[in-house]
């Protein structure tokens, strides 16, 4: 009986583990399975700040956000350019929320500034003795973004964050799915603690994913209660009426964060906001335009097929006519880079589309891609990792995807990207279309 059981057991293990042992086409890398969720405990006093993170507000201000268990904590930030010497002070506001039987701590948001570019500032929150520091982005290019989607809080998340933090960067962009709390609110607190060593040092600019929705019929019908309370972004400064979509500018780059789970048709507030936001961009002053959203518009992985299609049909033309340079998405737990595309065809004036939903989620990798591969898809691989977009100057940027292999960060996909603002052909075609449209309107009048 034992002799029979062993072969059967071996066969069972081979069948179960074979998808996890698929090898990459270009080397002998063995894909790793998902790892356990890490619950980061609260080890500070109730009055001490925890879950500290920062985000950009306007061209020279920063929002500092944190949580205290004590309801008596002050929403005050002291800051300066030398350790322990604070010649600046700002007062902000606080909020809190309840979700069924869970009550959040006191969530503080304080905007500080004006701040000097490319400068290290030291700060403390709420009068606490603990000091933090951050570096402001540069005023001019070059500029480097770290990009990581579907982050979660697993052992892979820790590895990804260590890789991101090991090399200097200016701003982190996260296209949705932060904590994977999925209504279990203490996971939001745990996530805040796991990212604090990184998010307190560099601005983190995020948009929501499906795991942030957390809606519940009748009681919480609109969702995003925890996300909006904890991760406040500069939506008002960009003319948006919702924290779920906004834009900001930094060092010659206009970044647009779209909401995949908010109304986006031509009659929606988000569509009208996007239309107005794109119209304000001056490509002579901001030669680069980058867009982030959660559900990818282009995807050859078998996971989440078609989930971004209705949004693509509604908004793609707006991005194309504005000559957006690159669109980052998450949701699919794998990496994929496409050529420049418009309306499902290669187009030299369309954005480059990149899926990077492989930050460290608890659900594992999306291992299966459609075959044969689409000629539009230039590189695809189901591995954990993160990306770096270094905008070198007004015309060129360098993209690299760093595969996450335990202690090593291996660059497996990289290419040079030329800004569409430097393409006379693409800009002239837009100008000609605008003139034709304007002439047609005048004729009708």
Automatic annotation (TrEMBL):
Q: Which reaction does it catalyse?
A: a phosphate monoester + H2O = an alcohol + phosphate
Top EC class per UniProt?
A: hydrolase
Spell out the CDD domains in the cross-references.
MPP_PAPs
According to the entry, every stretch annotated as the Purple acid phosphatase C-terminal domain falls at 350-410
Q: Pfam families from the entry?
A: Metallophos, Metallophos_C, Pur_ac_phosph_N
Is-annotated flag, keyword Transferase?
no
Q: What is its EC number?
A: 3.1.3.2
Q: Which GO molecular function annotations are given, in alphabetical order?
A: acid phosphatase activity; metal ion binding
Q: List the SUPFAM superfamilies.
A: Metallo-dependent phosphatases, Purple acid phosphatase, N-terminal domain
Q: What is its cofactor? A: Zn(2+); Fe cation
Q: Which residues form a coiled coil?
A: none
Give start-end of the signal peptide.
1-24
Residue ranges occupied by any Purple acid phosphatase N-terminal domain in the UniProt entry: 49-136
Q: Which UniProt keywords apply?
A: Glycoprotein, Hydrolase, Iron, Metal-binding, Signal, Zinc
Looking up InterPro entries in the UniProt record yields: Calcineurin-like_PHP, Metallo-depent_PP-like, MPP_PAP, PAPs-like, PAPs_C, PAPs_N, Purple_acid_Pase-like_N
Q: Where is the Calcineurin-like phosphoesterase domain?
A: 145-335
Span-the-membrane segments of this chain are none
User: What is stated as this protein's family in its record?
Assistant: Belongs to the metallophosphoesterase superfamily. Purple acid phosphatase family.
Q: What is this protein called?
A: Purple acid phosphatase
